[in-house]
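Example 9 (inverse folding). The structure is encoded as follows.
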């Protein structure tokens, strides 16, 4: 097992060129795949359930005779509970409690101000219907159910549909149980681009939704990109990534395992370690060498480390800040003892984990904040999924007679400057 993690040192003359090349977004989409997804989405949009049934039987790994059989019944949900342990259910309930408590802090409410008989404000309302996509290929992801459903419920969404390419209930029982505990209204055993298209445009059997959230493979991602505008989406997700900032006080095995925690997701996952201490970087390499052979997903981890892993030796504090903000990582662990000082200068990161006990793994399952995070550098302009993603705002404007006289002069002056005569006259009528 050959481990070849790329190393960079800020003292290198070509550091800037190599670093820039490394962090360049890897979200280029294959045209052939794009064409396939375009065809699927167009077919569903045009032919509805007929096309949907065709793609389910071709792509979802299980055969169905009609769309109705894709809806998971109460009897099937009850069956799912037989395949999970009391300990697992207890863990889900505790996670739900923590995530809900955090989400409630994000809840926005309507507000208004009044002056001279005029009123301005915002009316905050929940999105009416939302679909959550939950992957179900190589593994089951109950945590995805929690992170996507709970903020929507807290926001007040009345109709939540979960779609997932579930083959047998027993293979994904915990995800089904999680959906039941979270209050999902309907669960459908469909996935892929065809599921996204059906939700975006509706069919006779499947209701159209207002927004689609949740991670998926390249087909799901491209489909979400296509339907955006007809429905809302959360983001265009790329491979998972983690940046760890560490020093000589940190345990090399802890660092190695935290790097593994992201690398095991995907061969394209990006694990990065930054440190001023060369000895620590070497110790982590040794820990990786010792620990990796015993990891169940070692082949995936190895490919991730060799393809996209990176160790960066920096000279000082300022270089740490600069590099982290340029990467804008999905997950940032500041394990070093000066984590408070460093965190003050971090502008771009999806989630920031402070101190050596704050492993990213806690964030994935039960810490409280959402694990649906901006990837591929989009933390420069995006935020984690939250309650605010399931609420919308309408401006409230009530102008009194007294205020109208004042606003008329302002509005008409600007409108005339813009060449919009009717705007100006509409304002003048209110003088």
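The amino acid assigned to each position is listed next.
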């Amino acid at each position: 097992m050959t481990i070849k993690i790329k190393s960079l040192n800020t003292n290198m003359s070509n550091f800037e060129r190599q670093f820039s090349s490394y962090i360049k977004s890897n979200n280029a989409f294959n045209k052939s795949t794009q064409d396939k997804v375009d065809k699927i989405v167009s077919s569903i949009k045009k032919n509805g359930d007929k096309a949907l049934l065709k793609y389910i039987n071709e792509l979802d790994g299980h055969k169905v005779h009609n769309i109705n059989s894709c809806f998971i019944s109460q009897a099937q949900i009850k069956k799912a509970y037989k395949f999970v342990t009391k300990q697992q259910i207890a863990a889900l309930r505790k996670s739900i409690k923590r995530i809900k408590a955090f989400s409630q802090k994000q809840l926005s409410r309507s507000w208004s101000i009044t002056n001279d008989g005029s009123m301005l404000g915002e009316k905050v309302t929940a999105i009416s219907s939302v679909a959550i996509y939950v992957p179900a290929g190589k593994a089951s992801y109950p945590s995805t159910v929690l992170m996507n459903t709970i903020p929507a419920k807290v926001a007040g969404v009345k109709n939540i549909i979960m779609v997932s390419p579930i083959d047998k209930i027993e293979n994904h029982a915990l995800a089904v149980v999680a959906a039941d505990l979270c209050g999902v209204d309907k669960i459908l055993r469909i996935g892929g681009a065809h599921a996204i298209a059906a939700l975006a445009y509706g069919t006779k059997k499947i209701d159209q939704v207002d927004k689609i959230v949740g991670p998926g493979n390249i087909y799901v991602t491209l489909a979400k990109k296509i339907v955006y505008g007809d429905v809302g989406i959360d983001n265009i997700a790329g491979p998972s990534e983690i940046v760890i900032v560490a020093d000589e006080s940190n345990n090399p095995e802890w660092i190695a395992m935290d790097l593994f925690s992201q690398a095991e997701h995907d061969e394209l996952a990006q694990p990065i370690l930054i440190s001023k201490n060369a000895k620590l970087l070497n110790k982590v390499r040794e820990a990786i060498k010792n620990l990796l052979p015993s990891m169940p997903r070692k082949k995936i981890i190895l490919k991730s480390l060799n393809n996209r892993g990176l160790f960066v030796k920096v000279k000082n504090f300022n270089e740490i800040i600069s590099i982290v903000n340029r990467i804008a990582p999905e997950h940032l662990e500041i394990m070093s003892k000066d984590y408070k000082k460093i965190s003050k200068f971090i502008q771009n990161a999806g989630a920031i984990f402070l101190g050596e006990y704050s492993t990213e793994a806690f964030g994935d399952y039960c810490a409280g904040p959402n694990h649906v995070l901006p990837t591929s550098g989009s933390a420069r302009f995006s935020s984690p999924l939250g309650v605010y993603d399931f609420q919308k705002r309408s401006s409230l404007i009530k102008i009194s007679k007294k205020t109208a006289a004042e606003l008329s002069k302002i509005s008409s002056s600007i409108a005339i400057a813009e060449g919009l005569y009717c705007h100006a006259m509409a304002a003048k009528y209110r003088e």
